[in-house]
Amino acid sequence: MEKTLRGVGVSHGVAIGQVRHMGTAVLEPPTTQVPTEDAPREQARAQAAVEAVAADLIARGNLAGGEAQAVLEAQALMAQDPELMADVSRRIAVGSSAERGVYDAFAAYRALLASAGEYLAGRVADLDDVRNRIVARLLGVPMPGVPDSDEPYVLFARDLAPADTALLDPTLVLGFVTEEGGPTSHSAILARAMGVPAVVALAGATEVAEGTVVAVDGSSGDVLLDPSQEKQEELRAIAAERKAALAASSGPGQTSDGHRVPLLANVGGPADVPAALENGAEGVGLFRTEFLFLDDSAQAPSEEKQVEAYRKVLEAFPEGRVVVRVLDAGADKPLDFLTPADEPNPALGVRGLRTLLEHPEVLATQLRALAAAAAGLPVHLEVMAPMVADRKDAGDFAAACRKAGLDAKFGAMVEIPSAALRARAILQEVEFLSLGTNDLAQYTFAADRQVGALARLQDPWQPALLDLIASAAEAAQATGKSCGVCGEAASDPLLAVVLTGLGVTSLSMGSASIPYVRTMLAKYTLAQCRRAAEAARAADSAEEARVAAQQVLSGE
């Protein structure tokens, strides 16, 4: 009998297939007393397992490339954390086995992170995955991960670690559904980059029986259990219609009456460029540079290494616009040489521009590298700072750019409510704004972006968030400057129409979303976009805002 469950759709498309569940987590190792004389052997076993897991994560990252590579390299650094390994060694010295020492040391660190109000919940999930991989290797049991199957399937799990998501084979994994996570979690972002339909925060996902036939709509968040053959054919027809419309879509982003809205790509490094070009990106709206710094968290990359990496991306978009975000370190992206290890609340601490202003030599080196990388190229380089709170932040960043001799536009990311509310003041110092809706939602609603239970408050349709976006866009229009969106909100085609109506001047997203947004935007006039935006802002909840916008656009 057909039954529909609803989660949060995070990656477009329809997947129909049988359910396969993620492999079970590693069992807790037994507590056995190991003789003191065996401690060196057990310590060596633990060290070897840690190094093997770190190498495996790095290898997976190299295969995946792009954003996935940065995430997996961060996990490899986590596995080799010196303090964690010292704790493991101490536990083994007093009688623990290698596997028990690892398990208990990671449990203690996990409790420390969780006690910080779950601001680092996403990192806790990554920590669990690293622990499970190390313990599995020590016990000699299969690694937790995606199931082996010769037939395509829909993957169900409580959550998906980045190491699993990054290497999903889209020819076998038709789509995936998780019980945890949110629209801006690592797995959701990677799913969009891959173009795999995905639904997260689906209550009861792990209780769906193995082998159940399901239909997953990554746009609506609906998961239909045991759909009839008739329903399956209907859904396949809808999916085919969408695919045909996407194939026919080309050219620049614009409304049906010719109002231009450049559609740009979010990239995490040179590996993401081919997908951006294939999907018709008009440039790059968010070039995340953290991938270079995560290679070695003990020191910053050399200026020469940075120049080489930046130039590869800049060369791919001759005459195009490339917006580079300088290093956003801190919170869930700690770096040993930059970020303090003992912050009680890293998400609200020294991160982003705050970190760079405390280490001006790191910022100066990056800005000089960007200047050198762009030299002689026709690209339109723009550079922006993360986590700008007020006019002083913006002024300090602009001054650093000028001091470095950077011939580019300087901008500020709007990720903190104060920046949206005081956007006019910030625009006295910089030439453009870019809205990072993921963090802007997190700070507006005090809702960690990695916690599935708070997905409702991370929904970019929340009217309060739309109000802040409108405030920033109105300030940019009043000062004759641009205001784009580079957060995950831009990847929702219907919301892209509303954002255009709010006055946003460009939209940047994961490359796979560009054709969907281009097709949707081309259906409506600018006046329709504005009416949809007004209706959404007048609503009292995210769901009501979405419905109100749909009703306006459908003429109801």
Automatic annotation (TrEMBL):
Residues 252-524 form the PEP-utilising enzyme C-terminal domain. GO terms for molecular function: phosphoenolpyruvate-protein phosphotransferase activity. Residues 6-123 form the Phosphotransferase system enzyme I N-terminal domain. Keywords: Cytoplasm, Kinase, Magnesium, Metal-binding, Phosphotransferase system, Sugar transport, Transferase, Transport. Residues 151-221 form the PEP-utilising enzyme mobile domain. Its main location: cytoplasm. Gene3D superfamilies: Phosphoenolpyruvate-binding domains, Phosphohistidine domain, PtsI, HPr-binding domain. Its cofactor is Mg(2+). Belongs to the PEP-utilizing enzyme family. General (non sugar-specific) component of the phosphoenolpyruvate-dependent sugar phosphotransferase system (sugar PTS). This major carbohydrate active-transport system catalyzes the phosphorylation of incoming sugar substrates concomitantly with their translocation across the cell membrane. Enzyme I transfers the phosphoryl group from phosphoenolpyruvate (PEP) to the phosphoryl carrier protein (HPr). This is Phosphoenolpyruvate-protein phosphotransferase. It comes from Kitasatospora cathayae. The gene is ptsP.
